[in-house]
Amino acid sequence: MLSRQYLREHPEEVRASLEQRGYDVDLDRVLDLDEEWRALKSRGDDLRHERNEVSGEIGRLKADGKEAEAQEAIERSQELKAELAEVEARADELEAELDAALLELPNVPHESVPVGDDERDNVEVRRVGFDALRELPEEVVPHYELGEELDIIDEARAAKTTGSGFYFLKGEGAMLEHALIQFMLDVHREQGYVDLFPPIPVKTTSMVGTGQLPKFAEDAYRIGGSETEAYDEDDLWLCPTAEVPVTNMYAEEILLREDLPLKHQAYTPNFRREAGEHGTETRGIVRVHQFNKVELVNFVEPDDSYDRLEALVGEAEEVLKRLGLPYRILNLCTGDLTFSSAKTYDIEVWAPGTPADDGPERGGRWLEVSSASNFEDFQARRAGLRYRPERHESAEYLHTLNASGTAIGRVMVALLEYYQNDDGTVTVPEALRPYMNGAEVIEGHEPVGESAVGAGKRD
Q: Please, which residues have CB within 8 angstroms of residue 238's CB and are 6 or more apart in sequence?
């Protein structure tokens, strides 16, 4: 969250940030709450000071035998006590309101973030891999059709077991998913990342710490408590991204300077409702409610965070380079930043078989597979993440960053479409073959059941 001091000293910057990011927040109300809270805290200090003086005076008056004056002082002390209790109660109410209001304020964009309304105003930084594209079939089959033909992706049966927005991977499809997970973990170990395997359910406090709550509650799967009740510390949510458990792993702790930079990677399945969005893509595995990814989380000193952001982008894109997939990198504009981010680069892979209006000149579409973000101290303040620059110095808030390294399902989409062959098979990139038992081609297999016979896929 934004610090109260920053809000007091830079209200117009925060106001401009809200406008640039498209957030409708009554900032004047937040400022008024803070002003009233500070006035009450000051009044409380004055009352405590006066009460201490009066208490001391009571003893002296009694010692001097001035019982009447002592009784007046006792009555004044009781009046001060009662007023102080009222002031403190009101200050506590205001502080709770103020904290809740601050949780609704998004981060302030870094000065290098382009100003814009939405994804159309993002700035392309570079494209990689388009100067030496492999030869593609005249018509590239979309991954959802190819996956059905090869019988490696089964959405229909997943709809029976679970519902829309989920899918089965079968045979070489499942092997490819496992291969991508292990490949990515190996790549990032080379880059100095320490593995974590976190718990999948996360507490409400953890979701608040990284900024998923209270803003995006409707997009998350809640597995504890009631959706209509106020949040409770015992409530649990299915992990929407490994960013949540990994970032909060050190919540309310103080790290040391020599611990930083601290780099963790974690593979998890992730769960998101993506309320109101999934219906825009009814076929395929691009926008689904359960997906796998490897997340990269960094804890760094504030002065190092923007250099680390540039390095983090390079660490994430290394996956695509080794797989030989064409991609581009975007600097997100103010209107497209996530709630907690101060600056974000999106890495988008090219999927040549999936029709879209926004693809490159060769057709196909862009799929976001990683968002590399610097949150500065925004998450650190919410989660209580601090470090001590020197052992004798006061603790300070550190900076957090993360990136997907990368979204595995969408990388699979790009692989199935970009490495597709004329005969309907898919070439396995060389980097993945050791993880696929040496297989060079995905050939698929015959489907099972009467429905397959009826469809003419089996004699």
A: 200, 201, 202, 220, 221, 222, 223, 271
